[in-house]
Amino acid sequence: MANNKKKNLPPQAQEYQAFQKQREVKRPILINCIKAFLVGGTVCLIGQVITTFYIYFFNFTEQTAGNPTVATLIFITMLLTGFGIYDRIGQFAGAGTAVPVTGFGNAVISAAIEHRTEGYILGVGGSMFKVAGPVIVYGVFAAFVVAIIKTVLIQWGGL
């Protein structure tokens, strides 16, 4: 906090802030970054192995192997979340598990699990779409905008 703001605080608040600063747990930033890097890299490595699997065994191209790879990663994440394993990995790795696809899958299934007592339709289904809905809408809207821009550039720019 800036010194000017500290001066405006009452003496008790200044004492409390000094007390809080002494007791604050120091986070091992470098170790946390290394953990996040290694776990995030491992998730990406698993994604690459899955892509190679689809290319080698199912004759996909690199372009067409992306969609089933994403679906497989989301499915694996949802299974691991359901069994409580993904949460332990997240506790260890922090941001390393927030690789967009796996983080999205975890968020969707976590919301569903949390509200399962409210029923399958309103609890599970409704909670899943609270998280997934905005992401899907934004994705579709962003794809629409990019397609419009690309079309305009091709028509007028000769790309």
Main features:
159 residues, mainly alpha, 0% strand
* Helix content percent band: over 70%
- Please tally the helical runs, counting DSSP H or I stretches of 4 or more residues: 7
* Radius of gyration, in angstroms, nearest whole number: 23 Å
Q: What is the total number of structural domains?
A: 1
Output the helix-strand order. Answer: HHHHHHH
- Overall mean pLDDT stands at 86
Percent of residues in β-strands: under 5%
Main beta sheet strand tally, sense and closure: none
The count of strands amounts to 0
Structural class: mainly alpha
Which regions contain 5 or more consecutive residues with pLDDT less than 50?
none
**Basic shape:** extended
End-to-end separation in angstroms reads 51 Å
